[in-house]
Design goal:
18% strand, D-Maltodextrin-Binding Protein, domain 2, 15 strands
């Protein structure tokens, strides 16, 4: 997935490289490479102030999740190149050099299987481990998402490979001015098939997302493995394609702002950046459920860590007060229960962000109906890609 940060503000949310500490040669360091805009600068500052000893913190933001994944691959390739210099093994007292330049990295849950399979990351802990003190505060659904075997598949007996610290969803975003003329606003996926919006919709250029929303409309799962056994799937996809003006995973908001399209499907991390600034735009989580994404902390392979400061950082992100700050300031949802209420959230964002006020009501039920995009067999992935290419012709 090429989910990205869109039109980030230049406030503290757009975290430029933060460096805390004196920076002595022998000083303990914690290096983190993170998705830009996913952690407020003041949260890093608070963590630094609470440490019991002097630690140099280096937090470096990267524009896209894909860039972080590629960085993990680059580190692994360098490590392999070093290992191939076999003669170095015989140097007495040689210290192994860690190739990765970060103790923790942000990764999206969608990338987790590939990172595990390619041995780009190492487990954070065993399932029964107790390094992460706040692990028990996570809902079982989040624990299941990151507990996987060595092939990257869900496994309750596996290891913990990631620590979710914020999440969002796929939403419908629309131009209020245009739809007001039609006398309705979208509430569910089925609205994308309405007669009045033909050739007025932009969809993500992603097979799992587009086919997934059609599966959801048909009462099926985003993670359906045998598409051939879903009646009317191709027929529904063809009908939806007639409604679509273009497919894009990057440039679907600008046409909505300009009024060139009326409806779009996008990621909440993109959409929240524009809702407050363009009142003609609205957004909604489809009532029948949607796809969920999560940003995780992962540990690069090759990092020899005592599990102190990196684990402390993860636990700090999972403290309710910190989780609330991350959620409110980065306009996202938290995997930790917080005391967020509606008044904490900008009014324009309340329809797509979760708060404890809504928890027992509408958004809780929608969350329960929603799904992570889980790993599928390669043969199934080819089915999705082939069908997606076919309907776009």
């Amino acid at each position: 997935m090429d989910r990205r940060s869109f039109l980030l503000s230049t406030s503290t949310l757009a975290l430029s490289q933060l460096l805390f500490g004196c920076g002595g040669n022998n000083q303990t360091q914690l290096k983190v490479q993170l998705l830009k805009g996913s952690i407020p600068g003041q949260v890093v500052n608070q963590f630094h102030k609470g440490l019991q000893q002097e630690v140099e913190l280096k937090f470096a933001p990267v524009e896209q999740i894909q860039g972080l994944f590629q960085q993990l691959q680059n580190w692994q390739q360098k490590a392999k190149a070093t290992d191939e210099q076999g003669w170095r093994r015989f140097i007495p007292f040689r210290q192994d050099q860690k190739t990765a330049d970060a103790d923790l990295v942000t990764l999206g849950d969608y990338w987790l299987k590939a990172a595990i399979e390619q041995k780009l990351i190492q487990p954070l802990q065993e399932v029964q481990g107790n390094q992460l003190k706040q692990w028990s505060a996570l809902d079982e659904r989040w624990k299941q998402l990151v507990t996987r075997n060595d092939q990257g598949n869900l496994d309750t007996q596996g290891k913990v490979w990631g620590a979710p610290y914020r999440w969002g969803s796929t939403v419908i975003v629309y131009n209020r001015d245009k739809l007001q003329k039609l006398g309705w606003t979208p509430k569910d996926w089925s609205d994308l098939w309405r007669e009045g919006v033909r050739q007025q919709i932009s969809l993500l250029n992603q097979p799992r997302e587009v086919i997934g929303l059609v599966l959801k409309k048909l009462g099926k799962s985003y993670n359906t493995e045998n598409l051939d056994q879903v009646p009317d799937l191709e027929k529904e996809l063809q009908a939806l394609n007639q409604q679509v003006k273009f497919y894009s995973s990057n440039n679907y908001l600008e046409p909505l702002i300009m009024g060139d399209t009326w409806l779009g499907v996008g990621w909440s991390s993109d959409v929240v950046q524009v809702l407050g600034r363009y009142p003609q735009l609205g957004a909604v989580i489809p009532q029948s459920g949607t796809a969920i994404w999560a940003d995780l902390w992962v540990r690069p392979a090759g990092i020899t860590t005592k599990g102190t400061f990196s684990d402390q950082w993860i636990d700090f992100c999972w403290q309710p007060s910190t989780a609330k700050q991350i959620s409110v300031l980065t306009k996202s949802n938290s995997p930790i229960s917080t005391n967020i209420v509606a008044s904490d959230i900008q009014e324009a964002l309340r329809s797509i962000l979760q708060s404890d006020v809504y928890d027992g009501l509408r958004l809780r039920s929608v969350f329960d109906k929603s799904e992570f995009l889980l790993p599928l067999p390669p043969s199934t992935i080819k089915q999705y890609e082939s069908l997606f290419a076919k309907i776009k012709i």
